[in-house]
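Dear support,

Our group has been running a series of protein-ligand predictions, and this particular one with fe (ii) ion is the one our PI (initials K.S.) wants archived with full inputs and outputs. We had some confusion internally about which version of the output was final, so please treat the block below as the authoritative record. The input we submitted was:
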Amino acid sequence: MSFLKNAWYAASWADEITAALTPLEILGERVVLYRTSDGQCAALEDACPHRMLPLSMGRLVEDTVVCGYHGLTFDAAGACVAAPTSVAIPPKACVRAYPLAERYGLVWIWMGDPVRADPALIVEIPHWGSPGWGYNRGPVMPLDCHYLYVADNLLDPTHVTWVHPGSFADASCAAVPIETTSRPEGVTAARWLLDVEPAPFYAKHLKFAGRADRLQHYEVRYPANAIIKAVFVPAGSGGKGQPLHADAFLMDSFNFITPVNARQSRYFWFQLRNFAANDEAVSRKLTDDVKHAFEEDRVILNAVQIGMDTSSKPTIDLKNDLASHRFRTALARMIAKQG
Ligand code: FES
Ligand SMILES: [Fe+2]
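Confirmed final output from the archive:
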């Protein structure tokens, strides 16, 4: 299984990286993350070049990582700075250091060629830190499935009808056609649902009463960064190209999927909203409700992985697969090109 290497992936919530040596598996590679005394995060290959003991089993001493077997010692750039059992430092005693960047409360890691690790390539979040916008986040969700099954799900507005009947779905969701758009950075599947009863997850937060026009915007950027936008406006005021109603409910959900390996993924998510910006109770309620809904996805996606692993029959495609098909095709091309 190959992954897109020259890309930023969410490695951890920034506030979860401390001086403790934290082992992670990302794109099938073992990495150890930690924070040095100047507050910078560092990421090293988690294998001592002597006997491949994970460096995360060693100790952090004055910002250097000391192997827990024979004391080979590495700085944050991966250079060996001490070899206590040898007369001199062996020339090949080094480990790989991964470029990192902290942004949006996350530590991002670059798994490819370090020369190309430009933080400007991290997905852009326009309303981050904007006054009037609220924020909520939940814990990272481990998934026992390939990350592209998650991308499929996040490019598929239809699934809410069956997977989230008590939260994101409304009665009208199923049959409305979806517009699929491909751009160099990703694929979007979107549709306006006109004159609908607001779905339960959203109804309690709307500024207006009665029926609504609803936008479902499901976008995934390469390699696996989803931007899911929900817009609700009073019925009759929405639709493609319409100016935004003053009472519009806007919620952008950011979902970053980091492949662990070919069978596991980690799912980072947070939401930004244009209402109740500083209301902690609203943030907590949204986090609880989103967690509940994403748990519904997790059950399905883990079972899809098992189903795909245990069946030898070819799968069939449905109309709602168009966006994920385009996404997978373009991503496969990028992965093939990286060699
Ligand atoms: S295994 Fe690390 S120094 Fe021996
Ligand atoms: Fe879902």
